[in-house]
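Two quick folds needed for the group meeting slides. Do the first one here.
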Amino acid sequence: MAAGVLLGCVALGRVLALRLAAAYRPLTSMLGNHDRAVIVGTLSRCRLFGGMTDGAREALASHCRLRECEAGEFLCRQGEVGEELFVLAGGGVEVFTTNPVGEEAVLARRDEPGQYAGEQSVRQEGAARRSANLRAFIPTRVVRVPKAQFLAAMAPDAELRRRLQAEGEQQ
């Protein structure tokens, strides 16, 4: 009798688990669609990607991910190999360098959606090191654009390459 009750509980547990999974699937799909909309919207606001077609921007967005950061959290550190570009979706970040004795020099603050940082280490092939730190100064959300996809998007876009070169020379 006890074995029958136990098997019944196991079967009921499986049924409930399957129903829960089925109910959860649309929710995760909706969250994924929301993230995708945030990513596409953020890339649309970014002047780097302003000349892209909607299709090219959608294709790039499919490789990007959102990242949430708390105030004080580092997105990247000076000297690390740069593997991604960051585009601000909300919040704020500061770009700064640290000298050998630990003193910080703030180079820029980004607090408007569509502003970007980390472009210097991803604009060329090969392992380029970060020239500065990037830290959230308030709770922040960024779109992470992987280097490989950024370079692929940049390859056919002469205007994007020109803007990046000009910006690099100013820094």
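Then this one, please, same format:
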Amino acid sequence: MNDFLIAVHGQLWVKILADYLLVPIILIGAFLILRTPKKDERFKIYQTVLLAGLTSYFVGKIVGSFFQPETLRPFEKLGLGASASFLPNAGFPSDHALFAMSISFGVLFGIKNVKWGTILVGLSILMLVGRVLALVHTPLDVIGGSLFALIGSLVYLTLYFDNKTLKNNKH
């Protein structure tokens, strides 16, 4: 497995997956989140999706400050150079995973666009595979970031939609 990772980690297609796929995820997700909701729901959905993303990020960073399964990134352990952008930390959880999946889940759960939400989750997974192939993250790093994004999204969006349902059912 290490031979395969070493062979592909510096290739252009890996860099495109690992770094540049984030751009269309952000642009498509932001466009859909900003343009899809009805005018009377926009602010509440914007607020909910933003709080879900920020909460996911902060919880991930707090957990990451106590739990770091690896002290070195994979490329450092193998004595190679990084073939994708990264922050100078141990890598858990992946910021790219948190960000991309928060946007994807905002589209999927926040504006309830299953088609585009599924496409964005798929693109995010491709990006995360690229992050692992680029040797800047372990699978645990990207899975952890994705799980924090999912938990934050489900908590906030469940609270928003439960609260909305309760308000609509008052007599």
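Slide caption for protein two: The two ends are 62 Å apart (CA to CA).
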